[in-house]
Design goal:
- The chain is α+β, with helices and mostly antiparallel strands.
- Helix content is 28%, strand content 28%.
- The strands form 2 sheets. Strands 1, 2, 3, 4, 8, 9, 10, 11, 12, 13, 19, 22 and 23 form a 13-stranded mixed β-sheet that branches.
- The longest helix is centred in the last third of the chain and has 28 residues.
- Its cofactor is Mg(2+).
- It holds the Pfam family Chorismate_bind.
- It catalyses: chorismate = isochorismate.
């Protein structure tokens, strides 16, 4: 296993049971506390003082997995004080286990935006954010399959979750394996449903990792040290401590690291303005360029149309580098995207010292609740109309287009077959419909089934990713062609992004996404499905349409600055 222990040397290979605090041995506890408390630019190094759960024995049960709920308070400041006291109590009355994870949570009467809380925190700490999609108005097929008498708690599901720090992380250069999944599952329990590992996987786990994606490894998941959960009508602040003596990460060390992070928690939360980012786009560069993209599409079409070719679809992506006059605040940008993304997932993943991977994706990979699992087919794209009549005209064109029906049918039937391999029965409903988003509309269908056992969760992930919607069909042939044609690293773009939980897990597909790098602007990603009948010019226009939710916000602000 190629270990990734901390940002300062994670590309090296560390032995099993590596002591993650060894790089700080030259500091006494007092001097380290002064250093970490007063020198804010070195705060991110505290994340090195955590453990990589992938290095543990995944077969060994954790000593304890528990959640302790404290009394409800009025404000985040009160919740922070209560958690600081509760963490100190654990230090003086430690659980009698050599390994474990304990979540302390304090309900807050007021509903506060998780993204607003995250924006108020130290940006040098690793950050995570996941906001669930609103499915209002759509039938939830999962309800028909989810086990009613599961062992999970009746805790409500958060609307959005924001986290800082890392109680335990999971990261490696090697592709995500069943053993890695079991390493994560060690720290989860249906009796503690809000202990979750948030993260994602690369689109191509076997591809060479580009420098901008190095900190993410082949996969990256984290259980935040401090977490803010937003519910409908209320909120919750939580602190999590995790330890494993086998990894030389004792409860004492874990508590000290958590206390350091708690000292930085800000309760001065201001609701983010959704109107202005205050940046202007200086330049935009596409890879591939439009000149190179047309031949690539024609090349793919020749292969698809070739006699006896198994390939029926391939998704070709584009990376667009934008340079801005000032640094882009990834959390503010995500909040801006939220305005038009109620029907989409929002996410942010930022390991220590890394760029921020953010997204506003409409596409679900899967949602598992006990034995029930659902996925969806989402393919073919059209813009929204400028009037209701025009919008309906575009919808009819989308529904009756042979080319779009072919592209969509490939995706839907592929997902149906994959679910059949792990489920007793599969339902598809509706067979084909139109899903309307703020700027675009797609063909859409929902699929659901009942797993044979909950341990099939790893099989769900490996069976469904990558879907034909982001790769092609057959998958392996499409993946090979993508590797030949594309000259950039997709990283986690089009990969699974979401969370693993004890009784419930949910993953989106990391499309409509961007990698925000301090001092370097951002890389915005988009792709289009190439099938027989595709037109290079129209596919390029579709790429522009798909990234418009990112570029329009920035370009619009540039125009406003000029007017003022």
């Amino acid at each position: 296993m190629a270990s990734l222990q901390c940002s300062s040397h994670f590309l090296g290979t560390n032995p099993k049971k590596h002591n993650p605090s060894s790089i700080f041995r030259s500091y006494s506890r007092t001097s380290f506390t002064k250093l970490s408390y007063h020198v804010s630019h070195q705060r991110f190094l505290l994340c090195s003082l955590s453990m990589n759960g992938c290095e543990a024995d995944h077969k060994a049960s954790l000593g304890t997995v528990q959640t302790r709920t404290l009394s409800t308070v009025m404000s985040p400041a009160d919740a922070t004080e209560r958690l600081i006291t509760a963490v100190s109590d654990i230090k003086f009355q430690p659980p009698p286990f050599s390994s474990g994870i304990v979540r302390l949570q304090v309900p807050i009467e007021e509903q506060i935006g998780a993204i607003d809380w995250l924006h108020a925190q130290n940006e040098l700490l690793p950050r995570s954010f996941f906001s669930r999609r609103s499915d209002t108005g759509r039938q939830d097929l999962l309800q028909d399959f989810a086990t009613e008498n599961g062992n999970g708690s009746s805790d409500r599901n958060p609307l959005s979750v924001a986290g800082i720090g890392s109680a335990v992380f999971f990261r490696d250069l090697d592709p995500f394996s069943h053993d890695d999944w079991r390493s994560i599952r060690r720290f989860l329990s249906s009796k503690s449903p809000l202990i979750r590992a948030y993260g994602g996987l690369r689109f191509d786990p076997h591809g060479k990792i580009a420098v901008e994606w190095e900190h993410f490894g082949s996969f990256y998941f984290t259980v935040p040290q401090v977490e803010f959960d937003e519910f409908g009508g209320s909120s919750m602040l939580a602190a999590t401590v995790a330890w494993d003596d086998e990894l030389s990460w004792t409860l004492e060390k874990a508590i000290e690291a958590l206390q350091e992070t708690m000292l930085q928690v800000s309760s001065g939360i201001v609701k983010l303005r959704r109107e202005s980012l205050g940046v202007s786009v200086l330049s935009k560069n596409h890879v591939p360029s439009q000149v190179a993209y047309y031949p690539a599409v024609n090349n793919a079409l020749e292969i698809i149309k070739a006699k006896n070719s198994p390939l029926s679809k391939v998704v070709l992506a584009r990376s667009s580098r934008i340079i801005t006059g000032t640094d882009i605040d990834p959390i503010a940008w995500l909040a801006r995207l939220q305005c038009e993304g109620q029907d989409a997932y929002q996410f942010c993943l930022q390991p220590p010292g890394a760029p921020a991977f953010i997204g506003n994706t409409p596409e679900r990979l899967f949602h598992r609740k006990h034995l029930g699992v659902c996925s969806e087919a989402l393919a073919a794209t059209r813009p929204r109309g400028d009037s209701r009549a025009h919008d309906m005209e575009i919808e009819r064109d989308l529904l009756t287009s042979p080319k779009d029906d072919l592209e969509f049918s490939i995706v839907r039937e592929n997902i149906r077959e994959k679910l059949k391999s792990i489920c007793d029965r599969v339902v598809v409903k509706p067979h084909k419909s139109v899903r309307k988003l703020a700027r675009i509309q797609h063909l859409y269908s929902q699929l659901a089934g009942q797993l044979r056992r909950e341990d099939d969760e790893f099989d769900i992930l490996t069976a469904l990713h990558p879907t034909p919607a982001v790769c092609g069909c057959p998958v392996e042939e499409a993946r090979l062609l993508i590797k030949q044609i594309e000259s950039f690293d997709r990283g986690m773009y089009a990969g699974p992004v979401g969370f693993f939980g004890g009784g419930e897990s949910e993953f989106s597909v990391g499309i409509r996404s961007a990698l925000v790098e301090k001092g370097l602007g951002a890389l915005i990603y988009a792709g289009t499905g190439i099938v027989s009948g595709s037109n290079p010019s129209l596919e390029w226009k579709e790429l522009e349409l798909k990234i418009s939710q990112f570029t329009k916000s920035l370009e619009h602000e540039s125009a406003l600055q000029t007017i003022n």
